[in-house]
Design goal:
Chains A, B, C, D: One of its GO terms (biological process) is one-carbon metabolic process. 4 copies of one chain form a homotetramer. Chain A has 2 domains: about 80 residues, 2-Layer Sandwich (Alpha-Beta Plaits); about 190 residues, Formyl transferase, N-terminal domain (Rossmann fold), CATH 3.40.50. Chain A contains 8 helices and 13 strands. Chains in contact: A-B, A-C, A-D, B-C, B-D, C-D. At the A-C interface, strand 11 and strand 13 of A face strand 12 and strand 14 of C.
Chain lengths: ~280, ~280, ~280, ~280
């Protein structure tokens, strides 16, 4: 049995759902998931479809047919994924280890369904963790003067290992526009505040200073503007006046881990689409 | 512009989605909501569809066509609702007023989109509230000896006012099997615990005794077995050892109100289906 | 049996707790609540104490003794409240009714333990609600030209009715510095976002635009700077891409009501202290 | 600077707080945390106190003084802990690895402040994880016939390594009454439901069957009666009709991890007391 996932967006028109569902029905597909959303403000239609095929299934031909018979007509942006294809996820870290431990624990427990070709860091501190989990570790230091070479080295590694997407597990360096344009909507960051509050550095310090009663974490795609990319997932936890900044950092760790992993999983399962700097999340 | 909502369940078969979406597409309907669910264990297919029609739209004819062309073939249970039809909701209460105040506040704020033909109670205590909100109030006392007449009186009122569904806003009497069979999946109760924990009387007392750290509330359809009907909505709030039973009751009020109103709204918007004593909630 | 509540703040020193608890023990008080907090950054000590007295209890004498024996020595800010004194709470509204309905429902249900001498509005829309609940209503329109008189009228009413504190139940006018200085930390506002995100007007519109996955509400004391006063309580609810601005407004209502009422209750129960534009909340 | 934590419970009497705070004040202690609770139903007083001492501090003498001067008079159950003493925590596991990974990640990140002398399992599956984290692993198989020897072996290891408390990270064997009586309120279990709902085996299956809209996890002390011990911490997550049992198991993992780790930390920080099969949690 083969399973494929279709993601579509295009100008909204009547009849798209009927047309698309017919297309797969005619090919003996069984729809096991359908959801759609219309951005009425901009007149854009979005759809996610999962189809199961019990017979032999030629994805190359289906893609060609779909392009010819449907996508062209509606001028669609679309992707058809085969489930068997396992994504390759690179992890970038600096010195904080909690998100790394969490991802690797989930990875080993079989929760993610990805390959992790390597862990990359601008510091050597977390190399032993990579080793304990049996994953290649690359130390690519970044200084003011070596920024360009460092990035070149990073891109070289990403290409060599055919990485599909990158997760920044508290990686404390700015990602360059070049890298972002090479991996559009494929670099996932965890920010330790409920954005747009407390963007930028030291959000726990700012939260403490403002006296908020909840702190948050935000998982988002990286764009050129810092902490302003499309939000994939957010969550919060309650705090009180009695919590010090150190307490916030500690409490925040659990939030960061859980929000980050939820965001990563949504991406892996191709449940996210991006439009106008916002995400559509098909759950 | 007319808007209709379709609810379907039937034995799962390939092609239902394509067939149904085509049906509406051919009639110039524009699908603005589609969601489906397959209970794989029992092989049952569920779907909810919202269609907008910009042209004249003959719901009687569409219903007849749908029955003939589709529903018969697939042996469907189905309903097609026109949005204009405003539901009539009766409220049953006893002495607690918090859920009543909450519902009436929402009603007056235009949040519910129903008519409330009357409030019925086995006590007179809450009559002034009904009066303040300008809603007819019926006092139907229930004692051991008058149970049968009381119920007859209730059914009479329900029929007279053509009530569609009943909400039990902390109504402290058992609903008879007869009443339940007259309003299947149309009597909505709020129970003050996270069912199945603490079913029956005095759940806050039991929660206190067990030393739980969360209390809950459950909104469910009433069935013959007490507190065992299909769950529509649940939520919880945190408590601690320092909360007395009185505190739990007070904290629980807010939970009851919010969970009850969410459940009622899901019902009004026809987002609920019931199968095998469980709900499918299309959100 | 008399019950008194003590609130203290002063420069942190060793021995305060022992000294204060002794003071009440010597007068046959029974401590039923004690909590303290030290702002280590600024070296400030905060304490809340509830004492029960089974014998006759002369609060005037106790206050004098406390000032002489303890407060002077430690240079304390302090207040000793007798529980019997019922606070007077004025409600300011404009056109939105959901928070008003919620407060009045709680008030009638005996949940708040305050008097409500009047409801004041710059519009006439909500007068019928005041009437239905039997509470005096004052219409004080505010225009550019009548601002000064309007405020004078407001202050006159507040003084005439000996109002202790004011709650702004979605009151859509700026509160003047004069009013704020007359009621320091006694004007409570509900803002419909998780501050500091989306301060100012139309937070739901901004939340929609940014594509956040959670929306919030914040209950805070009003200070001269808009939406920047000490936060008493916050909470959030999850949203998705599929929610329109109208949906956010509707979902936000429930948040506003619950967060507002929690903040108001903390204030009424004298569980809040303010320092450095932050609250200490003794729960 | 030395820091000590005092836990007390005794029959409630007036003056205990003043007496105890004086005791530490006279010895130049600075109270940095005080909280108390009175179980009014049973007339029992509970207190937790943290004291900092800047001078030399003789804990042995203070303990003797406290017993003589205070504890005897009030017939107290009490413990005075020195902060420097690091607790020894044994981990029991079976085949599920998610809780183990989570604990070990936190341990390595310095979050727990305990020693882990060993991991013990009735299966060999998780030995590689113990090895990767550099922690001794003991395989003690348990079968019907070897139950008694297995337990003897377990107790021998616990004594040899001077273990303070045991955490059952999804350990799938019943703990014997003997073991429980050797470690009263020192064996911590994670149960994958919001107890008292779905006690016993397969709670996710039961939750699925009942159609609940929230699932939970409960961290509790182990007592002779299965899943009925004092609850330390609980939390929940929302589910829908569309989640299969497998989904519940996966979603539940995150809940189990977070609830378990919170419960363990409360225990390590001596913030828990047990009375009448309920916990008092000093936060």
């Amino acid at each position: 049995m083969a399973k494929v996932t279709l993601l579509i967006n295009c100008k909204d028109k009547s009849g798209i759902i009927a047309t698309v569902t017919n297309f797969f029905h005619e090919r003996n597909g069984n729809i096991v998931y359908i959801d759609q959303y219309v951005d009425t403000e901009n007149g854009i239609f979005f759809m996610r479809l999962e189809n199961e095929f019990s017979l032999e299934f030629d994805i190359v031909k289906v893609r060609a047919d779909f392009e010819k018979e449907i996508a062209k007509t509606y001028n669609m942006n679309w992707k058809l994924f085969a489930e068997e294809r396992v994504l390759k996820m690179a992890i970038f870290v600096s010195k904080y280890d909690h998100c790394l431990y969490d991802i690797l624990g989930r990875y080993k427990a079989g929760e993610l369904g990805v390959e992790i070709p390597f862990i990359l860091s601008n510091h050597k501190d977390l190399e032993p963790i990579a080793k304990a989990f049996g994953i290649p570790f690359y130390h690519v230091p970044v200084t003011k003067d070596t920024k360009v070479e460092a990035e070149a080295k990073q891109l070289e590694l990403l290409q060599e290992f055919e990485v599909d997407f990158i997760v920044l597990a508290r990686y404390m360096q700015i990602i360059s526009d070049k890298m972002i344009s090479e991996y559009p909507n494929n670099i996932i960051n965890i920010h330790h505040s409920f954005l747009p509050a407390f963007a930028g550095a030291k959000p726990y310090h700012s939260a403490y200073k403002r006296g908020v009663k909840i702190i948050g974490a935000t998982c988002h795609y990286v764009t050129a503007e810092l902490d302003a990319g499309p939000i994939i997932e957010q969550d919060i936890t309650r705090i009180s006046h009695s919590h010090s900044i150190k307490d916030l950092i500690l409490k925040g760790r659990d939030l960061e881990k859980i929000v980050f992993s939820r965001g990563i999983k949504l991406h892996i399962q191709r449940k996210t689409m991006v439009f106008n700097n916002k995400t559509i999340i098909f759950t």
